[in-house]
Description:
The chain is of the alpha/beta class. It has 14 helices and 19 strands. The protein is globular.
Amino acid sequence: xxxxxxxxxxxxxxxxxxxxxxxxxxxxxxxxxxxxxxxxxxxxxxxxxxxxxxxxxxxxxxxxxxxxxxxxxxxxxxxxxxxxxxxxxxxxxxxxxxxxxxxxxxxxxxxxxxxxxxxxxxxxxxxxxxxxxxxxxxxxxxxxxxxxxxxxxxxxxxxxxxxxxxxxxxxxxxxxxxxxxxxxxxxxxxxxxxxxxxxxxxxxxxxxxxxxxxxxxxxxxxxxxxxxxxxxxxxxxxxxxxxxxxxxxxxxxxxxxxxxxxxxxxxxxxxxxxxxxxxxxxxxxxxxxxxxxxxxxxxxxxxxxxxxxxxxxxxxxxxxxxxxxxxxxxxxxxxxxxxxxxxxxxxxxxxxxxxxxxxxxxxxxxxxxxxxxxxxxxxxxxxxxxxxxxxxxxxxxxxxxxxxxxxxxxxxxxxxxxxxxxxxxxxxxxxxxxx
Length: 435
Ligand code: SAH
Ligand code: SF4
Ligand code: F3S
């Protein structure tokens, strides 16, 4: 038998890309590729890219520059660009970097095996279609080989919301929900491979409509999967948080008390300009409803500062919203102009103004995150252990609230869920004792 070919995948961007990278590796596995952790000994390098901000997109070209040397040493090495930059820029990538052999978009990567045939003949391959055939139908079942205790599972793709700053509706296409039978089958396959916790993914995961009762209906169906212990989902849009989903947070034991619910801005004027289609008051009311269903839920958010037209008063409104809501976790970004989006046409704010706001925002969010973490000290949480800790004799896992928790490893195996009493809060993790 010939030596297996080695595939090196580098993943950028969101969790949906992490999921897609796994599926790409599985698709190419059928062509005899096995994954390697080093670009140096690869026969194929795939970069699964992100287009969300300018920096993310530009990084692709600097990384490609790095791989150039490898291609000079090994002319048989194939280099591919997948993901959202591939979708957004297509052929332009091959023009800017002629050593790229393959460009494949997020909706067409199930065609990778055929594209690899073309590469082996010395041709180039490009596919950025939004094909009629469903990629998940072509991709085979998930491998049976034992895997770690947590997994992502894409249930919904694309976005019809068209926020004024965002490229996702263009790179991922229209909103599509996968049929629930297939999701449940995939969840069962993951559980058989050792998975205990599944995070359901979608750009607007709570707009999922492939099951009666929407995402809540799907969660209740997954609740019945034996061996599956935890369910999470991300990312949600405030306007799609329906009553059933809010209620599930109070009543479904497997659904973890953590919710990523981006709001982007606390100013009504900016929310309108962003086309987010809700006000700050509506967001406050929603948070109240969610917290009455599940008082201990840890709330996470995304924020953009320096959106075109954002005044100091608008920014103060965002700080005020953050103080009112109090986030346990958050991600914040300086607005980045994206080609083809409506906001790109507007007058941009000076960079120093945006940088200053980002710093102030992150100070506040950092304080809240630390306070939330410190408030866990003395409490008992349930930890799903994922791997060995940094120090000998330690194991590390995640609490219900997605805090990283380390504890002495005595009698604990990867995949175990154990009660841990939190004794200390460190920079990015909590320490505790098994009870
Ligand atoms: N579907 C998710 C977000 C996907 S993008 C949602 O609606 O919440 C992830 C985050 O990137 C967004 O929440 C936003 O905060 C940020 N983002 C998106 N486009 C951006 C841009 N042009 N500049 C800066 N940040 C951006
Ligand atoms: Fe982008 Fe808005 Fe869609 Fe989220 S909801 S993916 S921010 S367009
Ligand atoms: Fe980036 Fe595409 Fe995800 S642009 S954030 S990889 S959907």
